Amino acid sequence: LHREPTVHRMHWVADGQGGSQLVVVPLHGRGNRRGQGAAVKVLAYTPPAEDRSKPWMTELIDQSMHVTHNFDPVQWDEDVAEELLLAGREGVVLLDRQDKRWRRTELVNASKFPEFEGAGEVRMGRVGGGRKVVATVEPFHGQRFVLYLEPQDGGDAWQRQVLCKDLAQGHAIACGD
Q: Tens of pLDDT along 124-135?
């Protein structure tokens, strides 16, 4: 398989066509130093359907962040394919496959939330009525546990709630709906 250095996370993700892809996310781009240089290549590997001796297909999903740490395969919308929440220094983005192409939507970044300093961990959950929440640990291995609540009534203004400010090297989270 094609490889990228510093691969840090990987998950099997439902492709919406009855199969799965292995999605891998490196910590930083090839040759990147301290967040400067090449961006992270988020890649999906598809195994051959029948002849396992044939090469796997490799697909570039996203190349927009320079430092990442974690991602969460989620069921964000009504289709059967899973989407990805990706956390990094530049923000939290949703990656959604539509018509065989991946579409990127910025959910959290410093321009939307000036106090945002990057995120290391990310998970999706739901609260009353099915409203989505995006949970993060900020910044990378940081001290804050933060929830972002989905806008009500189709708006685009997510609400930010800092739930804890004194974690020690926050490194993992989970959501219970």
A: 999 988 899 999
